[in-house]
Structure formats: C-alpha cells, structure tokens
Predict the structure.
Amino acid sequence: MRLLVTGGAGFIGANFVHQTVSTRPDVEVTVLDALTYAGNRESLASVEDRITFVHGNVADEPLVDDLVSRSDAVVHFAAESHNDNSLADPEPFLRTNVMGTFSLLQAVRSHGVRYHHISTDEVYGDLELDDPAKFTETTPYNPSSPYSASKASSDLFVCAWVRSFGIAATISNCSNNYGPFQHVEKFIPRQITNLLDGVRPRLYGEGRNVRDWIHVEDHNRAVWDILDRGKSGETYLIGADGETDNRTVIAALLEIFGRKPDDFDFVTDRPGHDLRYAIDSTRLQQELGWKPQYRDFRSGLEATVEWYRDNEQWWRPQKAGVETQYSASEKVV
Ligand code: NAD
Ligand code: TDX
C-alpha cells in the first residue's frame, strides 16, 4: 500500500509515521509537509531512510494531484492547529485547513483514492461542566474559534464530496492528544518545559476547563482501525474517557516535579475559551473493536515528562520564541 501522509512532520503525524513504519512494513509512506513553525524534520530523523519526504504545501493543487495520483490512500493530518494562533491571525487557518482540504478532495476525487480526514472534537463547540452528555457522531457542529470553524468547514467539505461525488472517505474527530513530539506552544508541553526551566506553569482563567486527554498512540491506532475497517462515508469519534480539568493537570505535573501545589500562575483567559470537551467513542469501540491502551493518564504524563527531559535538543530551539509570543498577550492575574 502506498500511503500519503500530510502533516507527517507535526506532532500527531510524526507519531503516526513512526507507528506505521514499525508495525506495517508493507506500507510505503510518503510525507507531504510544508515545515511551518509547527513542522520539524527532526521528528522523522530516525525513520528518514524508510519514508519519502516531500517538502510542500497541501494547498498546492498540481503537487497534491501528482502525489495523490501515485498513492492508494491519503491520511490528512496537515493543519494549522493552535487555537491561540487562530485568534491572533485566522487567515492561515483558512488557507491550510479549508483550501488544503479542498485541494486533497479534488485530487482523491479525480484519481479514485481512499481518503481519511483527521479532525477534532472542537467542531462540536463545548459542553457545560455538569452536563452528563458527551459528543457523539450526531452532535450538531457549533465551533467557537477560528481554528475550530476552519476544521468544521473542512469536515463539511468532506461530507459534501462523499455525497455529491462519491469519494471513498472517512472522518475522525479526536479529543486532546498528549505524548512525544508535541509543540511547546500546547498546554502540556508548555508546562513541562516551563517546569524543566524552573518557571511557574501558567493556567488560563480559573483553570476549570476540561479536556478529554488521549495518548497520541491510541489516537493513531484508531486511525489505522478506521483505514483498515472503517465504513466509507462514516464519522468516528476517538476518545479515551480522559476528562480532566486543567488545574488537575497542573497539580499532577507539579507533583511529578516535586514542586508545591500552588507553584503556578493564573493568567488572562483565552477569548471564547471552550469549557469542556467529552467524547463518546462507543461506535469506534463496538464497530471497529478499538480500545485505548494508555488508561492511566498519570503514568502517560510521567512518560511524557521523561521524553521532554531526554529530548531538550528537540524543543529548546522553539521555547524562547513561543514564550515571547505568549507574553505579548498574557498577563498574570
Ligand atoms: P501540528 O501543528 O503539531 O502539526 C501540523 C503539521 O502540518 C506540521 O508538520 C506543519 O508543518 C504541517 N502543515 C501546516 N500547514 C501545512 C500546509 N499548508 N501544507 C503542508 N503541511 C502543513 O498539529 P497536530 O497537533 O499534530 O494536529 C494534526 C491534526 O490533528 C490536525 O488536523 C488537527 O486539527 C488534528 N487534531 C489535533 C489534536 C491535538 O490534540 N493536537 C486533536 C484532535 C485533532
Ligand atoms: O499555557 C496554557 N495554559 C492553559 O491553561 C495553554 C497553552 C493552554 N491552556 C489551556 C487552554 C485549554 O483549556 O489548556 C487547555 C489545552 O490547551 P491547548 O493545548 O491549546 O489545546 P486546545 O485549545 O484544547 O486544542 C487542542 O485540542 C484539540 C489542540 O491544540 C487542537 O489542535 C485540537 O483540535
């Protein structure tokens, strides 16, 4: 199988490429990645000789058409992925997330290639803290940020191409991932690297917001289950019952680092900050037999701390720039 992986130099895509190379020797992987600030060739260094790397943009229609014409399937991870960036400058989110998806859809349509679209639970908006409900495949779309609006829009384009043009496509909407190779702009790596630097972690608002954490390897195993056995035209929600509020995540990290429980700062809240995400992954579990392997968030977090401790050369070049960017909008309250 010839598999085109877009965004393979990013967090989830790189982990997917590692998992694929080690578990599926029959798969020929081509990565298409624009190497934006979020892409890092170093993340693929140990598998560089087992894959083909193409430095290019998913919105480049002739390039995408050529690569898709030489593939049996596409997994589309490439995206602008950070909510805070989308609030500061939404435009790249439309270009990459909407126009990039459009160019892939046109190519898979003209070459009859199987397509899997990676998306997020954020397309559903948020839930109240005390709401017993979780997101399901039938929850209406209600995105809050420019990022989630661009992802919701790209998902709807996929649905339209299935219905109107009969492409063979599946969509997955996953909750918040954690694990190795995640950019230091994101919550967990930002706080881990702050703590490694002896800096106090920073919590937006009151820290009550809940995210449904899943280890990136569990997400990627689900993606393979969908590629192998998913039904064309279907959406699958991916989540591992990992609901945890941000304060609790900070408390666990402070404990891992042997720091006092109040050794953090509250900072200005994110505008429009979604309160709670929660995934009901019954369909994925019952129809495709997927189960998460990382069931203990605390030990997954400890392993992630170790990874950042051992791989400073990977994250250090980005750290100061990210903190400078945050300090422009963030105030300790
Ligand atoms: P990331 O920001 O770490 O990586 C994105 C990758 O895409 C980078 O390598 C970047 O260089 C590349 N890229 C960006 N624009 C591109 C373009 N125009 N052309 C080609 N490549 C481009 O993102 P991530 O966290 O790994 O997220 C991957 C996908 O998973 C995204 O579609 C995101 O919406 C989705 N997702 C992420 C999470 C999460 O918790 N991180 C959860 C659910 C879904
Ligand atoms: O310094 C911080 N302090 C803080 O309290 C940062 C960076 C974040 N936060 C909060 C905001 C969120 O409630 O932590 C939570 C997680 O924040 P992010 O890591 O920015 O993730 P989120 O906005 O939830 O979106 C993530 O999950 C869904 C990914 O970035 C998206 O790509 C994915 O679709």
Remarks:
- DSSP finds eleven helices and 13 strands in the chain.
